[in-house]
Amino acid sequence: MIIDDDVELCKLLKRCMDSDNRMQVDYCHNGSEGLSLLAERDYQLVVLDVMLPEMDGFEILTAIRRVNTVPVLMLTAKVEEGSKVYGLRLGADDYLSKPFSINEFLARVDALVRRYTALNYAIKPESLQLTYKGGLIIDMLSRTVTVHEKAITLTPKEFDLLYYLAANKGKVFTKKQLYIQVWHDQFAFDDGNIMAYTSKIRKKLEAANNEINYIETIWGVGYRFNPEV
Q: 38 CB contacts (<8 Å, ≥6 apart)?
């Protein structure tokens, strides 16, 4: 679904995504209509403009994240870093600044839909909210993490990595396996990438509760979520 008040842009993007029957696309021009459609239908992606009448993109994104984990690609004419950071913290999965190339747009759409589809196949209803010792709660619907009711701010990719490990508690994953499962891309030998993400997640969790090591390093193999929690 596309939510954008630029009628011609909506028509163009729909034609591009409809080509070769690659996707079925709905579009609307304001937030209230978009939220109504989202409540009625099962979408695999929302393309959301920031600057909209009535409700802006950030307000719409907040409303979506209260009830839905669908990926959100935000379109914006704003180039300020603060605007992008704000949207990502609210739960956006990706950003694209106007003007953009159609090829880049389609590549980002394909990547987000592929990741969402693969992740949803692995999610069971009972896994939508994961609860662990030390007051840790990982909520898939709202994409939030709390420790003793204190919110932990994670980037979208940090959340995906933590959720994947936690949902498979006790299982050991190599860096290659994590990269393929969470990034949904071909693995390029890069120990630093996975290490950097796990380090950031650990620091954020430890800042809220330093008594439990939630993510364990299995030396010479990879990582696992602590089976004792």
A: 1, 46, 64, 68, 70
Sheet containing 46-49, strands listed edge to edge, beginning at the edge strand earlier in sequence = 27-28, 2-3, 46-49, 72-76, 94-97
| Closest-CA residue to 113 (of 160, 163, 70) | 70
Rg (CA), the chain: 18
The model carries a pTM of: 0.56
Residue 9 contacts residue 17 (beta carbons within 8 Å): no
The helix/strand/coil state of 165 is helix
Q: Which of 35, 83, 29 is nearest to 60 (CA)?
A: 35
Nearest Cα residue to 61 out of 73, 79, 76, 77 = 73
DSSP track, 86-155: HHHHHT--EEEESS--HHHHHHHHHHHHHHHHHHHHH--GGGSEEEEGGGEEEETTTTEEEETTEEE---
pLDDT in tens, 47-92: 999 999 889 999 999 998 887 778 899 998 766 667 788 888 888 8
CA pair distance 131, 226, nearest whole angstrom: 13
